[in-house]
Design brief:
This protein is an alpha/beta fold. The protein has helices at about 35-40, 80-90, 115-125, 145-155, and strands at about 5-15, 15-25, 45-50, 100-105, 135-140. Belongs to the small GTPase superfamily. Arf family.
Length: about 160
């Protein structure tokens, strides 16, 4: 799949729950729209491309990116991780989005050398995000790895799933 340019909207049916997904591009020109599309949602899904090489420093605070609320993948290198982490932290710090659960998806885990969920948590500094539920899964859309887990997570946070 190629990165989203602009945005797309889809509805996904999972059991008795319909999930409306806004897939918003991570390019710099689209990032100012993220907050607008995240208002009133049951969860924010931030997608990163785990096949992008991690920064060489193991203590780096940088991170990659890509999807609905997903960070940029401009210049397909490890610097993208830093941009992704900064953009994610800026997004979740917005008062209108306080308390909204966050799901970070590290996609492309089928690519050799892809970052693990633990590495993504570290590089994206997810442990620093407070006052909201934060989860991170390593997935592969191509091989359908952890897609079921992701859908269950989202359904559990939907108004219908909370009943």
């Amino acid at each position: 799949m190629i990165p989203t340019v602009g945005f797309n909207m889809r509805k996904v049916q999972a059991g008795n729950t319909t999930i409306k997904v806004w897939d918003i591009g991570g390019q710099a020109r689209f990032r100012n729209m993220w907050e607008r599309y995240c208002r009133g949602v049951s969860a924010i899904v931030f997608v990163v491309d785990s096949s992008i090489p991690l920064p060489s420093s193991s203590t780096s605070s940088s991170g990659p990116s890509t999807g609905a609320g997903s960070a940029p993948s401009e210049g397909n290198d490890s610097a993208a991780w830093g941009v992704a982490a900064e953009e994610l932290h800026a997004l979740v710090s917005r008062p209108m989005l306080a308390g909204v659960p966050l799901l970070v998806l590290a996609t492309k885990n089928d690519v050799q050398g892809a970052a693990s969920a633990e590495e993504v948590i570290r590089v994206m500094r997810l442990e620093q995000i407070a006052a909201r539920e934060v989860s991170c899964y390593s997935i592969s859309s191509k091989r359908q790895v952890n897609i079921d887990v992701t859908l269950r997570w989202l359904c559990a946070r939907s108004p219908a799933g909370a009943r």
